[in-house]
Design brief:
The complex is a heterodimer. Chain A is of the alpha+beta class. Chain A has 2 domains: 59 residues; 232 residues, no CATH class. In chain A, a hairpin with a 2-residue loop joins β6 and β7. The two termini of chain A are 30 Å apart. Chain B is an alpha+beta fold. Chain B folds into 4 domains: 144 residues, Calcium-transporting ATPase, cytoplasmic transduction domain A (Distorted Sandwich), CATH 2.70.150.10; 296 residues, Calcium-transporting ATPase, transmembrane domain (Up-down Bundle); 208 residues, Rossmann fold, CATH 3.40.50.1000; 200 residues, 3-Layer(aba) Sandwich (Calcium-transporting ATPase, cytoplasmic domain N). Chain B is 44% helix and 18% strand. Chain B has 36 helices and 32 strands. In chain B, the strands form 6 sheets. A 9-stranded mixed beta sheet of chain B has the order 13-32-31-30-14-26-29-28-27, with helices on both faces. A 9-stranded antiparallel beta sheet of chain B has the order 16-15-25-24-23-22-21-20-19, with helices on both faces. In chain B, β15 and β16 form a beta hairpin. In chain B, α7 runs parallel beside α29, α32 runs antiparallel to α33 and α32 runs parallel beside α35. Chain B: Belongs to the cation transport ATPase (P-type) (TC 3.A.3) family. Type IV subfamily.
Chain lengths: 370, 1049
């Protein structure tokens, strides 16, 4: 890609030949060392970018980027994604009353049912996300309101959480575990999915809750306070976050291994999102070993235990079903970008070729009189 | 900071050495050790041989019999000769019983002036008064030589010593680049403040919407709620400032300092600057000005010792109108007299008597000392000949040498004259207790008692001695410039000699006239009394002495003249030619005579044959009957019309002497006229004269200012420095008289010449020879300028695209000052990830190789007027930074519209976002530098690829461990997870490529016109068309006695 000339300047002692002999006399001379470095004569590669050398590079880039872009674009398009907003803003929405009558103190959970239809069947593993909008998980006050030492099972941090957790540090004189605004605002809607088959019966779809958090988070970064298998004892002397219904060691009644700080829903929530509109992995619907699609097209019912208020800050809640490809979730951006850049490079290559050609002829003709 | 710290530490060490060393003080007859800083005025201090004086002392007692001591003031004024100082006359040998009061003037910095009086109280006698002069004063910093021990009383101590008073802190010189940096900084400061203001405003606009300020999931602490709204706004503003403060490249200052400090080593290391004769290379006193060397528009050069070698050789003399030429002189010199008419007289001789008188005069009328090593045998073992006396060996050829004789004098002319006399058979043996011994032609030793030395000074431009010969005659010998001798001798003698003097002068020799006078007993008594009186005077001593001198030095008879050759420096002409080719205007500022200086200018090719000279000197002013002022006015207008108005419009930097765009003008002005131009204060048009003068000068290819006083030299430099466009000036000189202009100019260069070290010590750079100026400016200056300019622009750029994404992120995080990058990345970015490549670049880059730069002086013009740091380029870099910042942020932003980026469906959070942006950033700015690097040494490869590797390594390392000291493990495995996502890889590659695309395009489109394409051809053509330099050793100069340091008409 670059025309290069290796310009190894030889060590020339000629210039100072006479002086170096004279200097080596009795007096310890202050004569500078004749080293390549000190004389700024280090051998150097001096690349020169010219149209001729860059030209092939443009074509190569174009030729590589366009196929990649097409591949990305196709695989993004092949990803099936289904979204449904269940916030309940609209009066016709099934969750309207739940949203409207939300109260922190209510003891009976409000449940609403959102029916929907999948027009296409989802073939491979389906990933179920919940999405929140206008929820500033990246707000500075929010981001820092956590104590990673506590979450890592540090006993002293458990009983004495970081100041950063204020105002979610203590309640009723006891330290909160897990402390901080992030933990306190843990997303606690429960989503369940039912497939309604042709004869009207609804079959629950098994939702796996393992593997939704980063492996390193689950196994290293988050740890329950050690020494005791009984989590209620381990968490003795702490209080649950104020907005929580259950203490941290009872987050998942169905699986005792998924409780405390290593609850995967909790870990996923604790990884703060980059933008105010975000999605977080909620459940995974594993592909069945047989050939039937994971989610065949047809009618479904989403059951929501509506615990999480978002209307007060004009937020939205969504449920997203998506398949995943090698590049992740559905996102046409990369494919388009690659195709565009590839095309630009190719186009520039053509333009440069023309310019180069013209310049060369001009250059040659100019050289002739000389 | 590091270099300054290092320099400070060295200074501290030196301070302790100076302030704390032990000295012996006599108190109550006992000898006490004291720290040197504790000496008080009035203490009697004992100093032994080779010790330096701890304070200014009045010499009371010396171990030598003749009540003298020898000192060298090498560390004060650089003169390495031994100076004789005298004890206070007629003083008790027993210091314990001495009771005296010393009156002296207020401390003043002049090293050579001191006036004082000593009242010696003897018991029941009237106090005796002794005058004290500089010959009694031993200066702090000087070293005692050839004397075992002296006692002296402290008169000035501490900051009042002459040495301390002379050590005026050099005014801080700032380079043009630094001024540009400050201007750019101001722009960035504005950007910073406006960013913070925008964010603060938007934050409060955003918060005013319902439910945004404090949603239920993100409540404020009690303290935050209680804070006053305006206080909160203010703290928010400050937080934004902190968040964005990286846009101000603080690390740039560190890097710039490092670059300058380290870069200056390349100047000291350059073997091309090494001079085998003095065994020294270049010296860098101020590393702050490296890049200024690439911006010089005006060079002010001294003549003697700078353009010329100041290496005097006695060429010929003229005795009573007959020419004597030393026949054994090397043949090249003989060539000169072939065409000269008077040469035919060579065989004719003046009377033997006259001849011997003349030679005696040469032997007696001087202040030369014979190096004592041969006479006293004290340090016979070190056979080193003093550097002043490099040419001694051949002198021995003529006269059978008894021993190797070294002469030491403050002026090389004197040595040349004494040696000249030696060639003709009269050898000066030395001065011993006021007796001068001369070995005459018959190998007899003649003794003369030295009665008085009427010292040389620049106003009189002559010196005299009064001696008494064995036969009892009192003789006065005087030598000096023709202009100062001729009016004082009998006119009928003048004509014969004048012819020779003028011929010698046009041949480029420095001429001196020698005169003598026999003083009658009365005359001598009168003179003696006058001199003693004047020396004793406490007030106006100088004036009184001058009057006496003038009285004595009258009515002399002229015996002859001497011609001493001062050769041009090696490659002086080539250097000047190269400088002019580089678009630099060269002005010669000298204290010398106009004719001499003019011939030097021709020899250096500053004036060409077709150059029209515009003369503005006393001579041209006195042409008509009209007053000088009127004539000055006329001439100025005339020249202005010629040189400025009629000249074709100047294309910036393109016109040059040999491009023969039109008539070349050379301008000559002398000191007297200059002071008329500059100080025409009462009249309103003085500033107009100044402007006219400046405009004329700026349109001339070279300007010669002769008969300049040191202060006038500085005045000229200052005038040009402050003229329109404030051009960068450089002064080069070797003597103490150049110090003022060296200090005044933007860049001061000292030549390590023969006139002491004063210039070197006050300079910013010192080189052994004038010819080194070429490489210093054309190669080093050019490279350093380009390097540092690129460094500065690059720093602003990289910090802009570093912080811009963070600014944009505020729009997506509720203006909450959430940083985009992790704290470690924020701090490491400038320190570790991106600092080394640019530092290596700024030290090693050679966008054009040194040989080409030296061969093509015109390349220097491409960077003239701060070309790389203009607002245009600054804008380009800023736009580039903004473009990159936008690209980084929004590229990743669109990627994160679906944060499920891994093939297992897991999502990325905000720290992954920041890490991706940061990775793109580090790679882009480093590769951008790689694209700019034209000169890839292994060091560049190492730091560029090493920095990137280090970034990757560090990110793994930083994210791979749960750090116990961190409250938040934000980056735990973020980097590794990022790399496990194909999308992240793809977006990183895409964004890096897209960012560099415009850069590559620009390089490609620019290249065909770039320097590289042209270089090759130019190298060839310049090699072919290179004029073989005429021998610059040709002696074209003359200099009269006075010259150095003084002008005055």
């Amino acid at each position: 890609m670059m025309a290069s000339s290796y310009n190894a300047k030889e060590e020339d002692g000629h210039h100072s030949g006479a002086s170096s002999h004279g200097a080596a006399g009795a007096v310890k001379s202050k004569k500078p060392d004749n080293t390549a470095f000190k004389q700024q004569r280090l051998p150097a590669w001096q690349p020169i970018l010219t149209a001729g050398t860059v030209l092939p590079a443009f074509f190569v880039i174009g030729l590589i980027f366009i196929p990649i872009g097409i591949g990305l674009f196709v695989s993004s398009n092949n990803i099936k994604e289904f979204q449904i907003d269940y916030t309940g803003v609209d009066i016709s929405s099934p969750c309207y009353s739940c949203a409207k009558n939300f109260s922190w103190n209510s003891t009976t959970p409000c449940v609403c049912y959102v029916p929907f239809t999948l027009n296409q069947s989802f073939e491979s593993n389906v990933f179920m996300y919940y999405g929140l909008s206008n929820f500033y998980q990246n707000h500075r006050r929010y981001v820092k309101s956590r104590d990673d030492s506590q979450l890592n099972g540090d006993r002293s941090a458990l009983t004495n959480p970081s100041k950063e957790c204020e105002p979610y540090r203590t309640s009723d004189g006891l330290p909160i575990a897990p402390c901080g605004a992030i933990a306190n605002s843990l997303f606690n809607d429960t989503l369940e999915l039912y497939h309604i088959d042709s004869n009207g019966t609804s079959n629950p779809i098994p939702l796996a809750k393992k593997g939704i958090a980063w492996w390193t988070d689950k196994h290293v970064k988050f740890r329950n306070p050690g020494g005791n298998n009984n989590l209620s004892v381990a968490f003795h002397g702490t209080n649950k976050p104020v907005n929580w219904r259950n203490p941290v060691y009872e987050l998942d009644p169905s699986d005792p291994e998924n409780n405390g700080f290593i609850n995967e829903d909790f870990i996923v929530w604790m990884r703060t999102a980059a933008l105010p509109t975000f999605r977080k992995l909620y459940r995974i619907i594993q592909k069945k070993p047989n050939t039937t699609p994971t989610l065949p097209s047809g009618k479904y019912l989403l059951t929501i235990t509506y615990n999480y208020p978002v209307l007060s800050f004009d937020g939205r809640k969504r449920m997203i079903l998506s398949t995943i490809s090698w590049m992740g979730g559905k996102n046409p951006f990369l494919g388009i970008a690659y195709i565009t850049v590839g095309s630009i490079c190719f186009f520039l290559g053509v333009v440069l070729l023309i310019i180069h050609h013209k310049y060369d002829t001009r250059n040659n003709s100019a050289d002739i009189p000389n | 900071m590091l270099p300054q710290g290092y320099e400070d530490w060295l200074r501290h060490k030196a301070d302790n050495e100076v302030n704390k060393y032990q000295v012996k003080v006599l108190e109550d007859g006992r000898r006490i050790q004291k720290e040197s800083e504790k000496i008080k005025v009035g203490d009697v201090v004992e100093v032994e041989e080779d010790e330096t004086f701890p304070c200014d002392l009045i010499l009371l007692q010396s171990s030598r019999d003749d009540d003298t001591c020898f000192v060298t003031t090498a560390s004060l004024d650089g003169e390495s000769n031994h100076k004789t100082h005298y004890t206070v006359p007629d003083i008790e040998k027993d210091l314990e019983s001495l009771n005296a009061t010393i009156e002296c003037e207020q401390p003043q910095p002049d090293l050579y002036k001191f006036v004082g009086r000593m009242h010696i109280d003897k018991n029941d006698q009237e106090p005796a008064v002794r005058s004290l002069g500089p010959e009694n004063l031993l200066l702090k910093g000087a070293t005692l030589k050839n004397t075992q021990k002296i006692y002296g009383v402290a008169v000035y101590t501490g900051m009042e010593t002459k040495m301390a008073l002379n050590y005026q802190g050099k005014s801080q010189k700032r380079s043009a680049v630094e001024k540009s940096i400050n201007a750019f900084l101001l722009v960035y400061l504005c950007i910073l403040v406006s960013k913070a203001l925008v964010c603060t405003t938007l934050k409060y606009v955003w918060q005013s919407k319902d439910g945004q300020d404090e949603p239920w999931y993100n409540e404020k602490t009690q303290r935050e709620k209680d804070t006053n709204l305006y206080l909160k706004m203010f703290t928010d503003f400050l937080s934004f400032m902190v968040l964005f403060n990286f846009i101000i490249p603080v690390s740039m200052y560190v890097t710039v300092e490092m670059q300058k400090f380290l870069g200056s080593f390349f100047i000291t290391w350059d073997k091309d600057f090494f001079d085998p004769e003095i065994q020294e290379g270049a010296l860098v006193n101020t590393s702050d000005l490296n890049e200024e060397l690439g911006q010089v528009e005006y060079v002010f050069t001294d003549k003697t010792g700078t353009l010329t070698q100041n290496n005097m050789e006695f060429i010929e003399c003229c005795i009573d109108g007959f020419q004597y030429k030393y026949r054994d002189a090397s043949s090249e010199l003989d060539g000169f007299c072939v065409t000269d008419g008077p040469v035919s007289k060579l065989q004719q001789k003046a009377g033997r008597e006259k001849e011997e008188l003349f030679l005696r005069a040469l032997c007696l009328c001087h202040t030369v000392q014979v190096k004592e090593s041969t006479d006293q045998g004290q340090s016979q073992q070190d056979g080193l000949i003093d550097q002043v006396d490099g040419l001694e060996v051949d002198a021995g050829l003529f006269h059978p040498p008894q021993e190797q004789r070294g002469f030491i004098a403050s002026s090389p002319d004197e040595v040349a004259l004494v040696k000249g006399a030696m060639r003709y058979g009269f050898t000066f043996l030395g001065l011993e207790s006021k007796t001068m011994k001369i070995l005459n032609r018959n190998n007899d030793v003649e003794m003369y008692e030295l009665l008085h030395v009427l010292n040389f000074d620049p106003v009189r431009r002559r010196m005299s001695v009064i001696v008494r010969s064995k036969s009892g005659d009192t003789l006065l010998f005087c030598k000096g410039a023709d202009s100062s001798i001729f009016p004082r001798v009998r006119q009928e003698e003048v004509e014969r000699i004048r012819m020779h003097v003028e011929r010698n002068a046009t041949e480029g020799y420095r001429t001196l006239c020698v005169a003598y006078k026999i003083l009658s007993a009365e005359e001598y008594a009168q003179a003696d009394a006058g001199l003693r009186d004047a020396r004793l005077a406490l007030q106006d001593r100088e004036e009184k002495l001058m009057t006496v001198y003038n009285q004595v030095e009258t009515g002399m008879s002229l015996i002859g003249a001497t011609a001493v050759e001062d050769r041009l420096q090696e490659e002086a002409a080539e250097t000047m030619e190269a400088l002019q080719g580089a678009g630099i205007k060269v002005w010669v500022l000298t204290g010398d005579k106009m004719e001499t200086a003019k011939s030097t200018c021709y020899a250096c090719r500053l004036f060409q044959r077709n150059t029209e000279l515009l003369e503005l000197t006393v001579r041209t002013l006195e042409d008509g009957e009209r007053s000088r002022e009127v004539r000055l006015h006329e001439l100025l207008l005339e020249y202005h019309k010629k040189a400025v108005q009629d000249a074709p419009p100047v294309k910036a930097g393109v016109n040059r002497s040999w491009s023969s765009a039109g008539q070349d003008y050379g301008f000559i002005i002398d000191g007297a006229t200059l002071s008329m131009v500059l100080n025409n204060s009462p009249e309103s048009n003085s500033s107009r004269y100044k402007n006219l003068f400046l405009q004329i000068c700026q349109n001339c290819t070279s300007v010669l200012c002769c008969r300049m006083a040191p202060l006038q030299k500085a005045q000229i430099v200052k005038m040009v420095k402050n003229s329109k466009g404030s051009p960068i000036t450089l002064s080069i000189g070797d003597g103490a008289n150049d110090v003022s202009m060296i200090l005044e100019a933007h860049v001061g260069i000292g030549i390590k010449g023969k006139e002491g070290r004063q210039a070197v010590r006050n300079s910013d750079y010192a080189v052994p020879k004038l010819k080194h100026l070429k490489k210093l400016l054309l190669a080093h200056g050019h490279l350093y300028y380009v390097r540092i300019a690129h460094l500065v622009q690059y720093f602003f750029y990289k910090n802009l695209c570093f912080i811009l994404p963070q600014f944009l992120y505020q729009f997506f995080c509720g203006y909450s000052q959430q940083p985009l990058y992790d704290a470690a990345y924020l701090t490491m970015y400038n320190i570790c990830f991106t600092s080394m490549p640019i530092l290596a670049y700024s030290l090693l880059e050679q966008h054009i190789c040194i040989e080409v730069l030296l061969d093509n002086a015109t390349l220097y013009r491409e960077i003239a007027k701060n070309a790389v740091l203009r607002w245009g380029t600054f804008l380009y870099w800023t736009v580039l930074g903004v473009f990159h910042g936008l690209l980084f942020f929004f590229g990743v932003r669109f990627l994160f519209s679906n944060p499920a980026l891994q093939d297992n469906g897991q999502v990325f959070g905000n720290w992954s976002y920041g890490t991706i942006v940061f990775t793109v950033l580090v790679f882009t700015v480093t590769l951008k530098l790689a694209l700019d690097t034209r000169h890839w040494t292994w060091i560049n490869h190492f730091v560029i690829w090493g920095s990137l590797a280090f970034y990757v390594f560090f990110s793994f390392f930083w994210g791979g461990i749960i750090w116990p000291f961190l409250r938040q493990q934000r980056l735990y495995f973020v980097f590794a997870n990022m790399l496990s996502s194909v999308s992240a890889w793809l977006v990183i590659i895409l964004l890096i490529l897209l960012s560099l695309l415009p850069e590559i395009l620009l390089v490609v489109f620019r290249k065909p016109r770039g320097p590289h394409a042209r270089q090759k051809k130019m190298v060839q053509s310049s090699v072919g068309g290179h004029q073989s330099p005429r021998s610059s050793a040709r002696p074209l100069l003359m200099r009269t006695f006075s010259d150095e340091s003084n002008t005055v008409i």
